[in-house]
Structure formats: C-alpha cells, structure tokens
Amino acid sequence: MRDLKQGKVLPQFEPRPDSQMKMHIAQSEASWRLHIKRGELARETGAFQDAVDCYTAAINVNPSYIDSHSWPEAHWWLSQALFQLGKYQESLAAIKNFIDISQAFPDAYGFMGTLLYLIGNRKEAIEAFEHVMSMSSNTSMQAAENLARAYLEEQNWERAIVNLGYLMQSNEVPDDLKFMHAYSHLILGGYENGWLLFDEALQFIGDPNNPHGAQYLRTRLGKEKKWQGEKLHGKKLLIWSEHGLGDIIMMSRYIHLIPDRFGECSLEIWTPLQLVRLISENFPAQVEIVGREGLLEKTTFDYHTSIMSLPQVFETYRESAIPSETPYLGVPKSATDIWEERLRMYSELKIGLVWSGNSSNEIDKQRSIPLSAFATIIALKGAVFISLQKGDAVKQLDSKNCPIVNLMNQCSDMLDTASLVSNLDLVISVDTSIAHLAGALGCPVWLLNRNGSEWRWLIDRIDSPWYPTMRIFNQKNKESWDTVITQVTQELSLALARRGSEKPIFR
User: pTM of the full predicted structure?
Assistant: First the structure.
C-alpha cells in the first residue's frame, strides 16, 4: 500500500482484523492507537469500509473517551468514513455520539447540519448551523455559507440576507452566492441595495449555451468605459443585452428616458435577432444582432452598459421610482391591421395562451405547465384561445380535438408576435418573454407565477410594479398547479359572463 502523501510504500495489512490478530491486540491504549492508525491508512487509500471497521474497533476499545483523549476522534473519523460511503444516517449517528461526548467543537455541529440537510431534515440542519454561529467568537464563514444556502432553499430571504452579509466579509465567496445576495434583496423589494449588488454580481452570471454572451462581452468591452451615469451630451452609448428576451423587454423601458436624464446622445443597441425589428421600431438607435461576427471590432463608443444595469444607473431605489407607464413598446398600425384582419373571423374574446418556457432554461420545469392542465380554462364558452407558444411545447397542440388556434407559424420574430398580441383581449402566460411583451405593450396579462416566485414579481403579490396591466396568480404548492388553474378558470368565467353588458376588464 502506498502512502499517497509521502509516496512511500507501506507494509501490506488486512484491513479487517482476523481472530488471530484480535488475540494479539490487547484492549489497551496501544491497541486503540493501532486501530486509529489502521483506519487512517485505509481512509487515505479510499478503503472507507475498512476504515469504518477500524474506527468501530477503536470505539469498542474505548467507547467513552473519559479522561483519555482531548476529543473523540474515532467517532469523528467513523462519521467521515460513513459519509464517504453515502451512509448518511449511520454517519449522523456517529457524529451525534461524538457530540454526546464533547460539545466543544463547532465543526461537529456543522457536519451534523450537513448530514441533516442531506437526509431532508432541514429544520434541524438549520438549528445545527445556527449553533455553530453561536459558538464562534468570530463569524464562521462555512457556517454562514451553510446557513445562507439552507435559508435560500427554504426561501427565507430575510435570514438568507443576514448570513450572506456575514459571508461577504470573506474574500472567497462563491459566485452563485454573490448573485443570490442581490437576488434576495430584489425579491423583497430592497432595491437600494439590490440593484447595486445585482450590477456587481452580473459579471458572475454566465450562459453555458452562449460562449459569446454576457460574460464574454463584459470581458471584451472592459470596465474603463462602463457607463456609471455620466452625462452623455454628444456621446455615443452602447447598450448590450444579456439573459433572456424577457429581461431585455423589461429593461428597455429605460431607453426612452436616457436623453432627458443624461442628455441627447447617439445610441447603439445590441440585441438577439428575435428582437431586432421590435427594438428598431421603438428606439432611435442603431440596432445590431448581438454576437454578430466582427461586431466588437467595428464598433466605437464612448460608454457601454448592459441593459440589466440600467435600473442601477437610473437609481431605481424604491418601487415608486420604477418607470411603469405602459405601453413603452408599440408596433406599426400596418402590422396590427394585418392581424386584425386575420382574427376577424373570431367573434369571441380572443385570449392568448403560453404554457411553457424555454426548455434549455434550468428553471423551466418549475414554471412550465402541461397544456392538458388547462382543460377547464379552454372549455369555457365565449372565448377563443390562441397559442402564443414557441418551441417543443407546440407539439402538445397535436392532441385530438384541441380547440386552440395556432397562428405562431406566421410570426417570424417578436415584432410579429407583438402585432398579434396587440389584437388580443387577454394573454395568459407562465413566466416567459410573452408575459413581459404583453405588459410592455399595455395589454392585459395574467401571469401564472411558480411557487417561490422570482425577483421581478416579488413575493405573494397579485399585481406588478413593473406592469400595470398584469395580474399575478401565485402557485402555493410547488407540486401542483391545480389551485392556480381553478382560480384562473373562476376569474375568467366571471369575466366572460360580464361580456353581455360590458367589455371585461382583465385585472
């Protein structure tokens, strides 16, 4: 056997003592140390079951450690070896035995908390991590990180912020927690801290599916010309997009406000292809496709900014400061006229429907709903449902007798989709770019919001400070959308019943 640290060849041994070996090892201090040493050698070579056997033998020699050792190390290493074997319950029992003997070691409580968390006992895990914090004269960074992650998982944003604040004192903060620190402030409406933290955290948010995305641009464009709110008279400002289409639509509200606040300037906007025509139609700017070959080399500018940094530049530090007047996006009358003619055959209320997001998004399973779940909504009389769905989820329309009208093959980009949406009475959507588009156009939109919400929609709000025409239906049980669907069915039924006397107001 080779000592991996020293590179020495060690004597071979049988990890599990046979009966002859047991006879030779006296129940003494020497035998205890021999078991510990054998356990250490087994552990270092990855023979964790052998290590378990050795540490168990050591404990049998001296189970209580009374007046013998400064700390019950056999229990500690037994717990560690069992952990490596994935035997979390047994590992937990071992570390609890350790704590029964000695309550003076914070790391024991921290490890117990980790095990409790892994087996799903989050309440006791949090108690263990909090105990570590109470034992530390100086804040334990590992305990702070453990607590932050636990509270984030529990969506206890206030406590997450407290522990993330401790953690930020360290020089080695995981990138994802830098972002979640900002996220936690924003979802609570703490914009004054949130936007500053968010702007700083943006550099840590990457898109693995887009090597020429935000992180690449941020690195290439550099910090020297990053716009921090300087006056722009006679200057050229480059605004580049990151994240999803919904983020860009949401934050484009600020672009109209730039000349009045910072001075008349030349604007260049980089945006995904799907938004090029819509952005070009709405803003007096040169619009380019982000990621186009050679774009970085040929572009000159005085300042640049991510579109997601605009709330910080505009000091949107309270809800009342959000530029929420809509519509702030529009479409040419000629385009809306085309769709008005196409939809003329439908005398019912026209309701757009989006039930699924981008399948490549890591949170898509949380926000997407099977089309079949909308059966009670689609069955309501007095409305025609029009699909606004793109992507793989469109295949769900192939089911027999599906009454949903699908016209999205006539929409090549977001300008076409915006022209269609402008002709609808209501849009019902999960959290996707279409919800943002409808809100930006000033169209009534009902958002089906996943359990735990998202920073844009705050917590348990039924309205949005970003979109006055939006109504939010919040999922209470993350395992089921039934309650949300029932509520939407009831509200839509009432609205349709009012149509005979007045046009429904979808709020």
Answer: 0.85
